[in-house]
Every structure is written in structure tokens, then in C-alpha cells.
Write a structure and sequence with these properties.
The complex is a heterodimer. Chain A is mainly β. Chain A has 2 helices and 11 strands. Chain B has an 8-stranded parallel sheet with strand order 6-5-4-3-2-1-8-7. The chains are: A mainly beta, B alpha/beta.
């Protein structure tokens, strides 16, 4: 079972390097859409935390314990199972402070429903479903460690 | 000679509960909930198969145990004829056929005779992307082998008189003489006004809708229909879709397919916005499906 919000608070914490120093933070994301996707259909956007933007190509995506870049996702023949979280791992020296944070991200996808085909065939856009479901996700979350 | 009256089965699309699935409702819960309504069959989606497209034997066993425990029959497996899974202009016909074969095998394994097959479209009325006939025709021998019928969904704002329905899909059926391709007629195509709570959805337009009598010509090519609804009142009436009239036409014309309750109320867009909305969804979604099943029972008489 996952939380009802797409951005999950469960799993939101700072991360540590091999020396025990905080080197970033991570959280999990579960699309609110009614179905799963092949990762090749997914279009990942930037993450913003308290106004600080983390570029989509700097994010490490973790699925089934394996790390991927956004670019690697385009060639990944793997199905993002319905209601299965994808971890966003983000490098930031010192991590985030203990307390509340406003976390937002953009996420879109390519699918064959009631609309035009994807305009950006190179995958640089946010897919072709924004007209029905938007791409923005946000949540205020409490970080404890 | 009079036509023998049809006896459609009452079923439910698992999609109706999608906001709750994996959050507050397990698959076991969903089966219990569906069985409580008196429905006897269901639509599944490929996405709801854990570890799709390779479910474990243990899960398949569990699935069949649920069907047996709750006396629910598989009706339709919703899937997608995706030809844009990768960056670039599209996949080859053979690549799409491989995707389709994979889903046919799964449907067969899980007992589904019908498929809701989404074909890539290019605009809001779902004009199919040119060339769809190539991969669907290539897939027909495999549909026969696995004993499944692909059904293109006719979904609002598409109507049964939208040109591509006859000019492309019906023409394809007649040309190939196949019984493995047809239509899932979504009852939203008959919707003539906005439902309660969905008046502000600008993309809804009811200027051009399917008239009930139009369904008759398509019944021979339809095996399962989405009995779409957006709001059921406490008198068990759907106020925006002429259900009694449409179902009477189906029954009087001998249709004995499956009518699957598919709830698409406004809450589905808002359930994740906050605890109050999600709590509303937890109550409203099962309640709406139950009301819809009572309406179907009242109309069908069983």
C-alpha cells in the first residue's frame, strides 16, 4: 500500500555518503494515473524543493534497487508497475534541514488517448497527456533525519 | 420471426476503483466489493497484473482462487496497442504485434475472451493513426489462436457516427470478415449533459452525441460494453445517460454480452488533492458502483 498523495512522505529523508556525511536527500513518487507505464513512455521533469530547482538530468532514479538517469530510462525495457514507488535520489551537500519542505516535480507521459501525438519525438517534452491530467505534483513534507 | 431477447451479464470494471487500489483497497478487497453488488463478471487491466507482463504462477493461482471464491467470471482485459513506446516516430508493425501477442497470451491465461484494445489516435475524437490496420490484421491469427476478441472503445466525444467508426473500423471488419475485432461501446457516447459535480469541465461537449437507436447496427460486433456513468442519484438513476432506452434496444435485439459498470465521476480527478477529497473518494466510489449495479438490476430484472 502507498500513501494517497503521489509524492510520498514515507521514504523522505537525507542520504549519507560512505563517510557518514549527508550528501543529499531522497523521496518516492507514485503517479496518480490509473495504470502503469513502460519507463520509455515516461517524461521526467525537474524537482523543486523550497524554490531550489534540481535539474532532471541531475536526478538519480531508483527502481527495483537499480539506479538510472533520465536518459537511461528511454532505453529501459521495464514496466513501472502500478502503485509501485520510484525513488528520486538527489545530491545536495548537507542535505535538507530538519522540518517542513515544499517538494514539487513535473511528470508526464506518452499514451494514445484522445489527443495529438507527442510533439517532441526526441523525448525532450513532457509527453502528450498534459491536456487531460497536467504534469505538476507538489506536497509539503516533514523531514526528520 | 421475433428475435429472442438478450440476457446481458452485469459486471464491473476494476478501473472504477483505481483511486483506491493499492492505497486502501487490495485486489482481494476489490473482489469482495464487486461480489457484494451482485455483479458476476469483471474487467481487469493489464496494469493491475503484478509484475506485468510476467505474473508469477503464485499470483495467477491467487487470481483464480479469488474468481472462484467470489464466483466472478473474467470478462474483458483492458490493454493498449501502443506503437509509441520509444522515442522517435513509432514502432514497426511487427513490434506492435509482439506487444499484442504478449497481452493475448495473458488474457488467455487469465480467462478473458474480450480485450478493450486502445489504438493510437491523433486527436480528441480518436481518429486512429494511419496504418493501424496493418498491425491489427497481422495480429488477427494470434487473436484466433488465443481465442480473444479485440474491441476498440467508442468513447466520448467519439460517436457511433464519427466517420472513422464506419469508414475505418467497420470497413476493416467487413473486409477481413473477422470476429476477433469489434467495438466496446462506452455508454458515455450517449451522455447528453454534464453530470453533477462535473459542470466545470470545459472539455465536455454534448452538441454531437450518439442517439440510442444507433447502437443496433453495432451490436453484432460488440461483446462487452463499458456501462459508463458519472453520477448515480439516491433513486438509482443515471441522470445524464438514457440507460433504460439503450439497454432495452440491446435486449430487444438479442444482445447477450457483458455490461460493465465503469465509474468516472469528478472525484477521480481530485482524490489525491487532500485528505478530505480522498476520504470522499473512499466512500463515494464504492457507493456509486453499488448504486449503478442496482440500476442495472432494476432495468434488466435480474
Amino acid at each position: 500500500m502507498v500513501e494517497f498523495q503521489p509524492i510520498q512522505q514515507r521514504g523522505f529523508h537525507n542520504t549519507y555518503d560512505e563517510n557518514g556525511e549527508i550528501d543529499g536527500f531522497e523521496f518516492k513518487f507514485v503517479p496518480k494515473y490509473y495504470k502503469g507505464y513502460w519507463f520509455t513512455q515516461c517524461r521526467f521533469g525537474n524537482v523543486t524543493v523550497d524554490g531550489e530547482v534540481f535539474d532532471r538530468d541531475e536526478i538519480i532514479f531508483v527502481y527495483d534497487g537499480i539506479e538510472y538517469s533520465r536518459e537511461e530510462m528511454f532505453d529501459l525495457h521495464k514496466y513501472w508497475q502500478f502503485r509501485t514507488p520510484l525513488t528520486y535520489r538527489i545530491k545536495k551537500k548537507g542535505g535538507l534541514s530538519i522540518g517542513y519542505h515544499d517538494v514539487s516535480l513535473q511528470y508526464g507521459w506518452v499514451l494514445n488517448y484522445n489527443g495529438a501525438l507527442e510533439k517532441e519525438f526526441d523525448g525532450s517534452g513532457m509527453g502528450n497527456m498534459a491536456h487531460m491530467f497536467g504534469v505538476d505534483n507538489q506536497r509539503r513534507m516533514l523531514l526528520c533525519k | 420471426m421475433s428475435i429472442e431477447k438478450g440476457t446481458p451479464r452485469r459486471g464491473i470494471c476494476l478501473y472504477s476503483y483505481h483511486n483506491l487500489l493499492g492505497k486502501t483497497m487490495t485486489l482481494d478487497d476489490a473482489f469482495e466489493e464487486m461480489a457484494d453488488t451482485g455483479a458476476t463478471c469483471f474487467e481487469f487491466l493489464t496494469s493491475y497484473i503484478p509484475n506485468y507482463p510476467n505474473p508469477s504462477p503464485e499470483w495467477v493461482d491467487h487470481y483464480w482462487r479469488l474468481c472462484e471464491k467470489y464466483n466472478m467470471q473474467p470478462s474483458e482485459l483492458g490493454h493498449w496497442a501502443e506503437n509509441h513506446l520509444h522515442r522517435g516516430k513509432g514502432m514497426t508493425d511487427d513490434e506492435v504485434v509482439e506487444e499484442l501477442k504478449q497481452d493475448f497470451r495473458l488474457a488467455h491465461l487469465l480467462g478473458f475472451k474480450a480485450l478493450r484494445t486502445k489504438i493510437t489516435c491523433t486527436n480528441e475524437i480518436c481518429d486512429p493513426e494511419p496504418g493501424w490496420q496493418n498491425y491489427i490484421e497481422k495480429a488477427l491469427p494470434y487473436a484466433e489462436k488465443y481465442d480473444v476478441r479485440m474491441q476498440n472503445e467508442v468513447h466520448l466525444p467519439t460517436t457511433l457516427h464519427t466517420p472513422h467508426i464506419r469508414d475505418e473500423y467497420l470497413d476493416f471488419i467487413h473486409r477481413t470478415k473477422t470476429s476477433h475485432f469489434g467495438f466496446n461501446i462506452d455508454f458515455g457516447t450517449f451522455q447528453y449533459k454534464a453530470a453533477k459535480g462535473m459542470e466545470d469541465m470545459a472539455w465536455l461537449n454534448f452538441d454531437d452525441i450518439t442517439k440510442p437507436e444507433e447502437i443496433v447496427d453495432f451490436l453484432p460486433y460488440s461483446y462487452v460494453c463499458h456501462a459508463k456513468f458519472t453520477y448515480m442519484n439516491e433513486n438509482f438513476e443515471e441522470e445524464t445517460i438514457p440507460y433504460p432506452e439503450v439497454i432495452k434496444l440491446m435486449v430487444d435485439n438479442g444482445w447477450s454480452g457483458d455490461l460493465l459498470s465503469e465509474y468516472e465521476g469528478g472525484i477521480r480527478f481530485h482524490a489525491e488533492e487532500g485528505p478530505d477529497k480522498f476520504a470522499q473518494a473512499m466512500v463515494e466510489i464504492p457507493d456509486q458502483v453499488r448504486r449503478h449495479q442496482i440500476m442495472l438490476r432494476n432495468i434488466l430484472g435480474y
